[in-house]
Amino acid sequence: MKLFRFKYLLILITANGFSQITPQQMVSNMGRGINIGNVLSAPVEGNWAPPISEQYFIDVANAGFTTVRIPMDFFGTRTSGDTSVYSSATGTAGDYTGSIADYTVSSTYLTRVEEVIDWSLGQGLITILDLHGNRLKSEFLYTFDDTKVQYTDPTSAKRLADLDKLEAIWTAIADRFKDKSENLLFEVINEPYFEVSATEMDAINTSIISVIRNSGAGNTTRNIVITGGGQNSYNAPLAIDPSILASDSYLIATFHYYLPFKFTSCTKDGKDQYTWGTTADKSSVESNFDTVLTWANNNKVSVLLGEFGTDNTLGYDYSTGDLSAISSNATGFADGGPDNASRVEYHRYIAEQAINRGFAFTVWDAGPESGKTIHKRTDHASTTNYDINYFTVNSYDPKNTVASTVVDNTTWVEDVKNALLGTTLSTTNFKTEEFRVFPNPASTFIEFQTKQSIAHITLVDINGRTIPLTYNDNSSSIALPYINNGMYILKAIFKNGQQTNSKLIINNL
After folding, report:
1. Which residues pair with 487 in a beta bridge?
2. At residue 6, does pLDDT exceed 70?
3. CA-CA distance, 434 to 460, in Å (whole number)?
């Protein structure tokens, strides 16, 4: 009987068009990505960053990122059911009379989440739904930490209620999105390891993986992102019980990297390392990443670097164009921030080392109203800013400020974005009157116009790999191989020895 049900499940998956993408394939496809933080993870969307719009995903895809991680908080008013009615005292678990049916996720919020996910998937982006947020911490994660007032004893009725509420949330998520593309991934919970032990996190992972798998349809083989408890940063995935990894073929392990904190959070009091990039700095990254790689190889698991980044250069506030924070604390940035060269190099090097080891990454970005900004979201925020080029032509001086303001209509912190995407993807000086390519975005073919005779033409992907194209002198059309969505560089070498680079977006619908 069990064998029959298993065969029927495989037939159902095939009939519904759900392919089975292995974690190895998925991580390769994910490549270089970005977080859209502080939006749906805020208690109310718009509190911490501009409300999200479809344009954000268009910007991300056009820039060349291939993955988006979207932190979302389902606690607070977004899920009904009050667990505080149950005792948090030792030995009261037998008094628990509830069930997951007592907790209901807001259909309005789920509809909004689905709209955002569809915008992302519609741009060909691999999309991660990440359970994340302050209410998640205060209502759930802190209940595992005996230093917090929210702590509940593991043998208490409230502990059972809180676990049921989490399971109810994931039941609703899994049911709502089970028919979505395999390019939607689920991440069980963000950074649980500061409050949750390894044993407790193993139990949570096991429970939520089961909820997702039992929901059926595409969720039976959807890739799920998990981490361990009790250990943070690069040690977090190492805390996952190997039996969990061995029990499911579609798991991706994740870790976050903000080391050294005194540099990556140097706008805060007491964290005063403003430069980064020495041989010792880089050796530390390599050693830590190699620790993850060795563990991953031993456990045959693929890896996502889910977050990394540094504070804004000099503590700059992109929502106001304010540098006064350096000396006055006007925007909450305590005492400046990293010099620009160090900030750019940190992002570049972390991205490079992740990709070199076969990890995918999603850099942390929380928009213009945060201390870590990459996408400025100027279609919503003010466009009057200090001239950010100041950071590249002036030496670091935490007491210096810019005398005048200019209008800055750029969407990105360009040098950081380019560092993340790789130096081969610099988008400056790509346009030329000698060579024109269309359509752009392209899917199966491109046409081009040029007065020059072409000797050779290739595509280069975000990792610098060359993809040869078949070119015929008698045709102005080139068939494209099936390749991952994202930004590529089309390199044309002319017979006179000159060459040109053109940015080409691939969007296979």
Report:
1. 505
2. no
3. 20
DSSP state letter for 330: T
Q: What is the pTM of this model?
A: 0.77
Measuring CA to CA, how many Å separate 176 from each of 5, 115, 165, 209, 384? 23, 12, 17, 16, 41
Q: State how far the Cα of 494 lies from the Cα of 431, in Å rounded to an integer.
A: 16
In eight-state DSSP terms, residue 380 is T
Q: Residue range 390-398: average pLDDT?
A: 35
SS in 3 state form for 196-241? CCHHHHHHHHHHHHHHHHHCCHHHHCCCEEECCCCCCHHHCHHHCC
Exposed (0-12), middle (13-18) or buried (19+): which is 17, by Cβ within 10 Å?
exposed
Model pLDDT, residue 356? 92
Report the distance separating Cα 324 and Cα 141, nearest Å: 36
The token duo for 117 is 């996910």
Residue 1 has pLDDT above 50, yes or no: no
Q: How deeply is 112 buried, as exposed, middle or buried, from its count of CB atoms within 10 A (0-12, 13-18, 19+)?
A: middle
DSSP 8-state secondary structure symbol assigned to residue 317: B
Confidence band of 7 (pLDDT split at 50, 70, 90): very low
Cβ atoms within 10 A of the Cβ of 235, count?
Answer: 16
Q: Which of 502, 465, 464, 462 is nearest to 485 (CA)?
A: 462
pLDDT at 392: 38
pLDDT tens-digit readout, 460-483? 766 556 677 887 777 778 888 888
C-alpha Rg value of the chain to the nearest Å: 24
Single-letter amino acid code for the residue at 210: S
DSSP annotation string for 34-69? EE--SSTTSSSTTSSSPPP-HHHHHHHHHHT--EEE
CA distance 200 to 155: 13
Average pLDDT over residues 190-212: 98
* Alpha-carbon span 281 to 355, nearest angstrom: 18
User: Given this model, what pLDDT does residue 506 score?
Assistant: 85
Q: Which residues contact 99 (CB under 8 A, 6 or more apart)?
A: 164
Identify which of 343, 340, 195 has the alpha carbon closest to the alpha carbon of residue 264: 343
Distance CA 341, CA 356 (A): 22
Give helix 279-299 / helix 340-356 axis angle, nearest 10°: 30
Structural domains in the chain? 2-424 (3.20.20.80), 426-506 (2.60.40.760)
Task: Give the rounded percent of residues in the chain with a pLDDT score beyond 70.
Answer: 82
Longest alpha-carbon distance in the chain:
84
Unique residue bearing structure tokens 């250990």? 231
DSSP β-bridge partners for residue 375: 412
- DSSP character for 503? E
| Neighbouring C-beta atoms of residue 473, cutoff 10 Å | 9
Contact yes or no for 138/148 (Cβ under 8 A): no
Choose among 61, 36, 57: nearest CA to 484: 61
